[in-house]
Amino acid sequence: MADGSVVEKVLDKVSGVLEKMTDMRMFLLGLTLIVYVDIWLIQANVNPGMLTFETGIAHLKTVSIETIVACFLAYSLLMALVFPALRYLIGALWMLISPGSHFHENRGAEAKQFSNWALGLLLLSVYSASQGFLVPAFQYKGMIHHTWHYLFLDGFTVMIFRVTIGLFCFFCVSSALEKDL
Q1: Contacts by 74-79, CB closer than 8 A, 24 or more apart
Q2: Domain limits for position 162
Q3: Residue pair 125/147 in contact by the 8 Å Cβ criterion
């Protein structure tokens, strides 16, 4: 009977970890961080697909602490101040365009934060894609550019991937444009 309780505790812990990993807000925040780091990799002309773990660590050793702190400070400021301010401006524009439209007045702080992060993911993705478009052909163009080219392949799994990316983009756009003033 003691073995059953240990197994149950382990299953509860594993399900709790899986639940946190599949929480949409954390997923969105993780994606924004990945896209943001990808922007820095494009600017540094570092292709993560060509790095081994050993060379990746060697590259990290050459980066100054000041650069790492600046990277995460800028990311934090974007996520905490810039994207919420942009969403507020979008909401104000919605009020000017359609003053009698429906607003979500009872949205909680988590729902507003999710919408802010969705806007952040969209804007960072657009910036990453445009930055990747402007680099020469032999350089790393970024994860968004790679994903974009992958969408034009043929096959059933690519079709499922296209639908998934399309639905996710629609979800992010609709979340980012929700009005909550």
Answers
A1: 75/33, 75/36, 78/36, 78/120, 78/124, 79/29, 79/32, 79/116, 79/117, 79/120
A2: 2-176
A3: no
Report DSSP state, residue 47: -
Lookup: tokens for 80:
């905490």
In a domain, 107, yes or no: yes
Question: What is the rounded end-to-end Cα distance, in angstroms, of the chain?
Answer: 55
Residues of the chain with pLDDT under 50: 1
Does residue 181 lie within any of the structural domains? no
Q: What is the pLDDT of residue 102?
A: 58
Contacts of 86 (CB under 8 A, 6+ apart): 119, 123
Domain count, the chain: 1
* Residue 75: partners with Cβ closer than 8 Å, 6 or more residues away: 33, 36
Phi/psi at 103 (5° precision)? -120, 150
